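Researcher: I'd like a structural prediction for the single chain below. Treat it as a standalone chain; there are no partners to consider.
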Amino acid sequence: MTMKHNKRRNSALLYECLVNTMSRALIENDEKRSNVALNLMTRHFRPGTELHREFRIANALLKSTVSSPHTAAMIVSEAKEAIRGIDATRLETEKSLLIRRINEDLGGEDVYDEPITDYRTYATIGSLFNEWRKDKKNVDIATLVEYEDALVKHLSTEKLVENNDDKHDDSDRFVFKVMVKKLNERYHDTLNQDQKKLISAYALAPDGATLKKCVEEIRDSSLAALKEFEDVEKNNRFVLEKVNEVKSALTNEDASNVNDDTIVRFMLYAKLIEELNHSQED
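Model: Treating it as a single chain, here is the predicted structure.
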């Protein structure tokens, strides 16, 4: 017997599909679609929601590496207890609302069909979460053990270290440089200077220090631009609510832990700075 898995109700997959949708739209210069995807992410995965709680647990299991199978087994046990502590009814309501918004605002199937790296692990974790929430009498023990064992092995397997130049030889760095050069040439008219700088830093920064500084600069500039915009629109309650949402998201960004998802968000933040500055000039 195998577990049934519904990717549309897998919080980590939903998040990853939105990130990929946003990335694709950004490359295709579809700013409206990028903004819609980003808005859905920040609104539905905001701290305090059950969806955010489940996603954080899933993401930790996806990204973490531990020193031994014993430690991995302990983490799986802790994750199980954490999942059982989530309000399942509220979680399902939040997922249904997000799925409806994806279907109506982004065309549904195009989002769900986005290719996901290591899809099998996402599915394993999502299926385990569903089983962990069941009454013990309804759990298929043999299949549960098989999936938990797969998760333990995943946790015990070393993950690729991002932004570690020791992992790349000279030919790799040359490829990176060519890639960045071609990207900047192709999107010269659509990418602003902050976006180009961010892409270059992400591809080429050996120790991550340059990237961290770049991300921090964009975050600080975005917050400053939002503050100026907020002062101008201080009597517009709707605008102020939206500004506060973006400010909250920016404040919670961790510049010390940058990955593909972070870069996509900061590409949009960099675009936001440009638009806000232009609005002040008009």
